[in-house]
Amino acid sequence: MTVSSCRFSAWRRKIWMKGRRRLKDSSETPGALWHIYLNKDMERVREFLRKEQSLDGAPEQDPIREQGLYLSRKQRQRLLEEQGVQGWTVVQFLGDSVLIPAGAMHQVQNLHSCVQVINDFVSPEHVANSFHLSQELRPNNEEVNYEDKLQIFT
């Protein structure tokens, strides 16, 4: 797919072109490859993952929250074809920050040895979404992956 065939806005085209230049620049080394999916697509991604893992939809098994599967290029393509879900691919270089929207599903592949620095924060615009996400995770708060960092109590 070429830039001209995509319906990118001007700023997206600029970001896309800058990323391509950085990939070709021998002085820059990509450090991580991120795939980020919007929160609104969560149920379709969950359905796809359950099929991939042959889960019968047991409510206690959430393939997204269990973090046990990394979607390959072929799987991401099938997710698009079968469920209509397209994620964002982000190549992270040294010094770059990656901001992930509240509740967005994501996966990261480190391309080189690295140190990961994480700072969780919630913007005022996403407090409601973060609250609902924390409520969704609260029944499973005994699991390490389900830490309630928002700590809103009702």
| Structure summary, number of beta strands | 3
> What structural category characterises the helix and strand content?
alpha+beta
- What proportion of the residues form beta strands (DSSP E)? 5-15%
Tally the helices: what do you get? 4
Structural write-up:
It is a single chain. This protein is an alpha+beta fold. The chain is built from four helices and three strands; from the N terminus they run H-E-H-H-E-E-H. The radius of gyration is 17 Å and the shape is globular. The chain has a three-stranded antiparallel sheet with strand order 2-1-3. InterPro entries: JmjC_dom, LSDs-like. Keywords: Metal-binding, Nucleus.
List the helices and strands and how they pair.
Layout: H1 10-24, E1 30-37, H2 42-52, H3 73-83, E2 88-93, E3 105-110, H4 127-137
Antiparallel strand pairs: 1-2, 1-3
Descriptive keywords:
single chain, 154 residues, alpha+beta, 3-stranded antiparallel sheet, globular
Précis, in short:
The protein is an alpha+beta fold and 154 residues long.
